[in-house]
Amino acid sequence: MNKLFNLDNPVMQFLSAMADLIILNLLTLLCCLPVFTIGASLSAMHYVLLKMARKEESYIVKPFFKAFKDNFRQATGEWLILLAVFAVLFLDVSMIRSNNGLFPGFMMPLIIAVAVVVFFFAQWVFPLQMHFANPVKTTMKNAVLLGLGRFPRTLGMAAIWAVPVLLLLFTTALVPLVLMFGLSFPGLVMAYLYSPVFKKFEPEVEEVSDENFDEDSAEKDDAYRSLAQMQEENRRIEQELEKKDQEKAEKV
Predict the structure, then answer these.
(1) In whole angstroms, how large is the CA radius of gyration of the chain?
(2) Distance (Å) of CA 86 to CA 54, 75, 158
(3) Residues 190 and 219 occupy one common structural domain
(4) What's the CA dihedral at 12, 14, 15, 21 to 10 degrees?
(5) Does pLDDT of 40 surpass 80?
(6) Highest mean pLDDT among 6-10, 55-59, 61-65, 242-246
(7) Residue pair 123/158 in contact by the 8 Å Cβ criterion
(8) Residue 38 near residue 2 (C-beta atoms within 8 A)
(9) CA distance 117 to 124
(10) DSSP state, residue 103
(11) Same-domain pairing of 66 and 133
């Protein structure tokens, strides 16, 4: 029984991960409610999910709100740009449908194709935003470059979002499941896909060998000893000066 409730038990680790995903999903949904905050909310979600994918951090709430605050301004700008693009495409589709026969037949497939391409590129925007410090223009450009350069991953990242949509279309009974995992689970799969790509652009951390560590430690020890000797010498000089002052005072 004790082994069952041990935190190192695979079952407990799995349950803990599921609980973290539920909490993260609810936080993301709540912070998406004002609509214009969707960009910052998704950036914060990807920040936490990348940590989870790399097993770097076990906290959820505090890192989420920190990332939300740090990315709010730029992520909101990026989200509004994407929202404007999709709004224009939606209006074009609505106009074509309401004026059947007025526009050439290739217009509808063309607009849908453009919307799909923009959706593909959008998969990279908020992960890039939360992980790399770049202006909005650079982030959007890098999203396009990675969307093209890593197309199989882009396709997988876009396809994973079809899961919650298909679940809702299949039956409304799965709405609670989507509310618990509809954003966080696809986002976690995305994190596993884009994490290796991001690592190629991250600065390498120089490893300190045992030999260098020992040399640094020896240098620090010598410095500490020299400092202690200087302090002892200063105390000795102060004592001698005080003694001379006392002798002068006694003679007077």
Answers:
(1) 30
(2) 33, 16, 16
(3) no
(4) 140
(5) yes
(6) 61-65
(7) yes
(8) no
(9) 12
(10) S
(11) yes
Position 166 pLDDT exceeds 70: yes
Domain co-membership, 155 together with 30:
yes
Number of domains in the chain: 2
> What are the Cα distances from residue 43, in Å, to 54, 90, 115, 233?
17, 24, 21, 57
Give the span between the Cα atoms of 184 and 42, in whole angstroms: 10
Do 15 and 86 fall into the same domain? yes
Residue 157 to residue 151: CA distance in whole angstroms: 10
**Percent of the chain whose pLDDT exceeds 90:** 57
In a domain, 4, yes or no: no
Do 176 and 213 belong together in one domain? no
Segments forming the whole domain that contains residue 213: 209-252
Same domain assignment for residues 115 and 220: no
As a whole number of angstroms, the distance between CA 55 and CA 196 comes to: 14
Query: Measured over all CA atoms, what is the biggest interatomic distance in the chain, rounded to whole angstroms?
Result: 119
User: Are the beta carbons of 40 and 71 closer than 8 angstroms?
Assistant: yes
Residue with tokens 């994490």: 195
Predicted pLDDT of residue 226: 57
